[in-house]
Amino acid sequence: MTLFHRCAFTALLLIAAPVARAADAPAPDPQLFREIYQELVEINTTDSAGDTVRAAEAMAARLRAAGLPAADIQVLSSGPRKGDLVARLRGTGARKPLLLIAHIDVVEAKREDWDFDPFTLQEVDGYFRGRGTIDDKAMAASFVANLIQYAKEGFKPDRDIIVALTADEELSDSPHDGAKWLLQNHRELIEAELAINEGGGGALKDGKPWRSSIQLAEKIYQSYRLEVKDAGGHSSVPRPGNAIYRLADGLRRLADFAFPIRLSPVTQAYFERVAATEEPAVADAIKALLAGSSDAQALAPLTERPNYNAQIRTTCVATMLEAGHAENALPQTARATVNCRIQPNEAVPDIERALVAAIADPKIAVIPIGSAVLSPPSALDPEVMDAVTRLTAEMWPGVPVIPTMSSGYTDSRWLRNAGIPSYGVSGLFTDQSHNGVHGLNEQVGVQQLYDSRAFLYRLVKTLAKKSPATD
Fold it and tell me: Are 128 and 446 in contact (CB under 8 A)?
């Protein structure tokens, strides 16, 4: 990011001063949105037993019923139970299209683990509950309902608006990942100037909107298999060099290792903005970080908080173990899976070398699993930042908009890699420590969801209109 862009970025972030809600706020049909949302949530779209083709077809039927031309609505399947929807609201063509992308697959959810049926939408105590109520069927339902609303209004944007609902985002290396598959096989359907996706959202504090984020970057996903081989033998005659012990010792050394702290332009801007929202001890640690300190004690309030620690360094963590072949035999093989989330400004081969050095045992093989998808941060787009900041100020006065790097991945990695700048922004405020995303009893506030739908309606409409530069 150039100095000019940094200055522009800072100026845009300061725009978020409280102003009155715009008079042209939408009056969409809340009942239709709720029906679409409920239908999506109640279609099981897990990898094990779900069906994203069914979900894509259901949303296609909604769009056709609303009068969108059938030729502009396509359901494409990459395999059994794996489907994607691509729908287009045609504009004047004065500008390149705007892509709205949301995945419709969800993380596994077992009924015996949950307090309720994860695939029956519930509305309890001001919350919608169910698997996918946030991730990512909230945005998917919003995009579909809003596209229907634009069509009902006769809205003629200056650019086509494309909605893509995709499969298998939740699987790290699936051949059916919808964003990847569409780019490889039907790129012309989703070619766009920029994309709006998940990855950014709002945080609640004491039940009130606290700060909102726009995702400009995300970490690089790369897993490794650690493997120890041994001749094995009878368990009644143990000997030194047990494969399990050797692997465990290497994992212990990895657990004690921390990658060096490194900021990027995005995380630098993130901490500059976050400091004003934090308690004094954390704010002081952020100031030390921005001043270039590497003092462990000074930075402890950051490094001891997993979410902040993940922002300032690459992380590699053991996630799976497999060893032995019989309880009465010495193990012939011991394996562990280590998942790394790598800073986008670091080279993957450098991280692999650091991982090998941290494990410090030549008998522990370090084998990459799949290939990392390099995903450069999206360049600063003043038009996007201005729209997000202005609308946030109108809807949630005083709430700052903060640029972020996701520690996890989204389908934006494929889009950015393909040259389509992507911005993670939803306007959905949640209690991030209790929302159940990827865990049990996923839930979102009813009012927060409706507000998010309204925010996305206005944001997309703003970005689809003529750019001020062309007036």
Answer: yes
Residue 22 near residue 396, CB atoms below 8 Å: no
Distance from C-alpha of 122 to C-alpha of 133, rounded to nearest angstrom: 10
Whether the Cβ atoms of residue 322 and residue 332 lie closer than 8 Å to each other:
no
User: How far is residue 279's CA from residue 403's CA, in Å, rounded to a whole number?
Assistant: 20
**What is the spatial distance between Cα 40 and Cα 260, in angstroms, rounded to a whole number?**
43
Q: What are the φ/ψ torsions at residue 426 (nearest 5 degrees)? A: -135, -25
Instruction: Identify the three-state secondary structure at position 337.
Output: strand
Instruction: Of 7, 12, 14, give the one whose Cα is nearest residue 276.
Output: 14
Model confidence pLDDT, tens digit, residues 224-246: 999 999 999 999 999 988 999 99
Q: What's the start-to-end Cα distance of the chain, in Å?
A: 28
Residue 25 vs residue 331, higher pLDDT:
331
Question: Quick one: which of 188, 189, 164 has its CA closest to 177?
Answer: 164
pLDDT given for residue 10 in this prediction: 44
How, if at all, do strands 208-218 and 202-205 pair? Answer: antiparallel
Among the residue ranges 13-22, 349-358, 363-372, 442-451, the one predicted with the least confidence is 13-22
* H or E stretch at 266: helix 265-274
